[in-house]
Structures are given as structure tokens and as C-alpha cells.
Amino acid sequence: MAALEIDSVGCVSSIDGNEDEEIVSHTKQHALPHQYSSKPHGTVAVGLVPTSVHELLECPVCTNSMYPPIHQCPNGHTLCSTCKSRVHNRCPTCRQELGDIRCLALEKVAESLELPCKFFSLGCAEIFPYYSKLKHEAVCNFRPHNCPYAGSECSVTGDIPCLVAHLRDDHKVDMHTGSTFNHRYVKSNPREVENATWMLTVFNCFGQYFCLHFEAFQLGMAPVYMAFLRFMGDETEARNYSYSLEVGANGRKLIWEGTPRSIRCSHRKVRDSHDGLIIQRNMALFFSGGDKKELKLRVTGRIWKEQQNPDAGVCIPNLSI
User: Fold this and answer.
1) d(CA 188, CA 295)
2) What is the pLDDT of residues 148-194, one digit of tens each?
3) Of 121, 192, 130, 177, residue with least CA distance to 303
4) Of the chain's two ends, which shows fewer C-beta atoms within 10 Å, N or C?
5) d(CA 30, CA 35)
6) Smallest Cα–Cα separation from 196: which of 28, 6, 4?
7) More confident residue, 163 or 249
8) DSSP three-state, residue 204
């Protein structure tokens, strides 16, 4: 999947600004970035359970915590149910046949434990019964975020400051400060949808980061262009913000208003739900003017924070940065 590379950059920091930036599309390869790790923001005492008990509940094959059914061989060596099939029913420690022996004693020990969330070093101070811990960790607000860079299948995870640095340094994403923007997207051959399918710009405003996506893809049999915004944070925080996108020319205009989706929601899921400004190719070429052999779209927009009105109980927009 190819990227749309920025040719020149200009950031608009006010609603009535006239500056714009032109982004020219062509195929571009990105090297795989190195793995990032999040910096800890706090700690929780882990001395609730002796290390030896942790070791007993650790699968010797995958090193993950074991959950029922916990299997054991005739010699008492244990492993998790997932790895039992991987080792072809042979104990990885003594090579004895495993059979269907369960370690009920260890399962009972696990029931009595209370453990901190595995994201305690990132700020989560919650304590959970052993068997509830996994369910919480799947939705924990402190769990690392996936890299929001579309098209690269990037495996990097981390907290927001870590991912912002990763996007800037490894993916060479353009970073802008301000809540308004004015971009001009250019593509020399608009009929080659597959070769110009995405780009990303990051905005810093209201003390938060937002990802603006613009891409081309097939919707049924017809190629379309789509722009949408994602919030670098959780869904509950994303609902505090709204954004608008506008594209037009030759006396015609398309406007989209909505709430940015969290980067917890994958780029593909947002795109496939059509939650953004969608421009049919014929309309995009009409906006481009000329002989329709080159795509030239000017997309403007702004981001604002919704403020709760304590008297009326409704949200009012806050347009300040």
C-alpha cells in the first residue's frame, strides 16, 4: 500500500487562514520501525503474591499465566490448555504423555489470588481476582495503544507520547499545531486507486493529538476518496471533541461534521464504517477542474472541544486552541 508524500507544508492556526499545503501522491516505501516501549508512570506494590506462586502459574511453554483447564503430566509438570496441543500431547519438561490430567489443586490456588493489573507500571492501580484479571486487561484504559499509522501493519505499541515520537521519527508523519487546517491533495493519475490509498497528518491542539487520514479505496465497483479524523486516546475522551471537513470548487461543496473515533478503533474499521467525508471519484474530478487527468482536492477543516453547559445540560462548542 502506497503513501501520499507531502511536497510542501503550511499550518493554518486560525479559522479564516488562507494558507494551505499541497500533498503530492506517489508510491513510497517505509522501513519497518523499531519496537517502542512505554515509560512507566507509576507503580503499585506487587508483593501480594509470592514470586514462587507466580512461577507455578506460569506456563513453561508460552510463559503466560495459566487459566483452567490447567493440565499436568504424570510427573506433575503443568502447562496451559493452549500449549497442550502445540506440544503434541507430550510434556515439554519430561517428555511423558500428558493424557487428560488436570491440576485441580493449582486451579484452586489461582481462585484465591488477587493480583494487580499487568499495566500497573503504566498507571493502573486496580487489583483483581485472578480469574477476572484477563477480562479487565482487555479493556484497561492504561493498556498500550497500537500505532495508528495505516497501511504498514506496524506492530509498535505504547502510550500516546511514545506513539507521537514514533510517528514523527519512524513514519516521518507531518506534525502540526493548531485546530484548523487547509490541505490540497494532488494525484497525477486518479484512476489508479490502489497506488495512492492513504496518508496521515497529526495535529496537536487542546493538549491532545489527532490523526487526519485521507485515502482512496474501492467502494463496491466505484473508487472513492475519504477523509476522517481519529483521536489519540480512549473513546470516552474522544467524545469531548468534534470536527468538520469541507471540500468543494466550481460552486459546489461537501461538508462533514462528526466526532473523532479513538485510535482504539482500527483504521480499517473506521474506514469500512464510512464514518467520514466520502467523495465519489466523479465529484472529486469535478472539484479538481481542468481535463480531469489530475486530482486536485482542497480539504479544509477544524477541530473544537465541546463544553458542558451546567445550566442547560447541553454541550456548547469551545473554539479556542
Assistant:
1) 6
2) 987 667 889 999 999 999 999 999 999 999 999 998 888 777 666 65
3) 177
4) N
5) 15
6) 4
7) 163
8) strand
| Residue with the three cell numbers 487527468 | 293
Residue 126 grid cell: 486496580
Grid cell, residue 285, equals: 474530478
Tell me the per-residue pLDDT of 55-111, one tens digit each, with 9 for 90 and over. 788 899 998 888 889 999 999 999 998 898 889 888 999 999 888 899 999 998 888
Query: Quick check: bond before 50 cis, omega within 30?
Result: no
- List the grid coordinates of 44: 503499585
Question: Which letter does DSSP use for residue 195 in this model?
Answer: G
Grid cell 481535463 — which residue? 291
- List residues bridging with 21 in a β-sheet: 183
Residue 164 CB neighbours (<10 A): 17
Closest of 1, 70, 5 to residue 200, by C-alpha: 5
Q: What are phi and psi of 272, to 5 degrees?
A: -70, -20
